[in-house]
Amino acid sequence: MTTRQTLLATVLPLALLSTSAMADLSTTVTLASDYTFNGVSQTQNDPAIQGSLDYAFADSGMYVGTWASNVDFGEGTDIEWDAYFGNYLELNSALSVDYGIAYYSYHGEGHSSDGNYPEVYTKFGYASSLGQTELNFWYSWDYFGSGAGHVISMLAHTFEIAPNHAIRASFDISNSLDGDKYTWDGSDKSYNHYRIAYQTSFAGFDFELAGENTSLDWDTADERIVASISRSFDL
């Protein structure tokens, strides 16, 4: 089985969670050349179609949503379906925090659900004249149903190179806290992931072209280019 966390690569981005910029109910559909999670393909290097449905409680900053994608973990696991609940707060004009809990579930065969797991997350944002900086953390106490504690730490920065054109660079570390229950690449308790992406939008569509690589020696985690196009709709 390949590895997965998200989003989200996969809850809502900080910029989209601003209650002043988001409708109460929205949906997003994405087509991607590959579904990678922290640099590891979840679709055996094949394309993915993904969709989300999100509701924001505009008065409080709370939100709830669900997200799904095709995957290919072998042995019949072909759908990932997640749910999440969180709260986004703007602490002042520069600082923000986004925290919540997510549950990742897998479908296809009876054994697919063995990999289901919960996760909590906290994301800090700092906006300045140089762009948006993020410091993000994810923690699971039952990573992929293994019973292992697991932490992902990410540092990212997004800056505008021209109006409606941005570059986002990120670095993250995936670290198993229980090496006797879950390891990477045989005996490694952690691995690194590097990513740089160009982002823009046109006619209501969002486009991203990213290059990424990891320290893992897997054909599903080597250097690659990933392209995606998405469209959000207010409901």
Any overview of this molecule?
The protein is an all-beta fold and 235 residues long. The chain has a single domain (14-234), classed as monomeric porin ompg (Porin). Helices cover 0% and strands 58% of the residues. It is built from no helices and 14 strands. Strands 1-4-5-6-7-8-9-10-11-12-13-14 form a 12-stranded antiparallel barrel. Strands 2-3 form a two-stranded antiparallel ribbon. The radius of gyration is 17 Å and the shape is globular. The termini are far apart.
CATH third-tier fold name: Porin
- What's the main sheet like? 12 strands, antiparallel, barrel
How far apart, in Å, are the first and last alpha carbons?
36 Å
User: If you compute it from the alpha carbons, what radius of gyration comes out, rounded to the nearest whole angstrom?
Assistant: 17 Å
Structural class: mainly beta
Q: Please name the fourth-level CATH homologous superfamily.
A: monomeric porin ompg
Helicity range of the residues? under 10%
Which geometry do the CA atoms define? globular
Q: What are the segments in which pLDDT stays under 50 over at least 5 consecutive residues?
A: 1-21
* CATH class assignment: Mainly Beta
Overall CATH architecture? Beta Barrel
- Number of distinct beta strands: 14
Instruction: Please state how the strands of the largest beta sheet are arranged side by side.
Output: 1-4-5-6-7-8-9-10-11-12-13-14
Number of domains: 1
In N-to-C order, the SSE pattern is EEEEEEEEEEEEEE
Helical run tally: 0
**Overall mean pLDDT:** 91
